Amino acid sequence: MMATRLQSSTVSAFHRWLNQEEQLGINDESLFDAYLRWGENDNFGGPRVLSTWYDRNIRIVHNVWRAIEPDDERVLLLVGNGHVPVLRHLFATAPLFCPVSPLPHC
User: Fold this and answer.
1) Contact, 87 vs 79, CB < 8 A?
2) What integer pLDDT is reported at residue 68 of this predicted model?
3) Domain boundaries, the chain
4) What does the DSSP 8-state code read for residue 82?
């Protein structure tokens, strides 16, 4: 379905579609569904993968925080749509940030 969608749309239209709430939710649910189930007994391989994913996103927030200057009013962060749900939560929770979707401006 994704390949068909890409072939039949422009790059910007495809990315607008990828970043719609429904698509973000599907991606996020798939990630958790796949990795929370993986591992038996003392094997926590799936949860380890998820913790690594969260660690990566926490470091992204940290690096953005370190890169901004006191007078900066806005930051544009370009990431793959798989990062959006986690980063939205982290940025909304962190002081100083107020995440806003770019979709209304596209």
Assistant:
1) yes
2) 93
3) 2-105
4) G
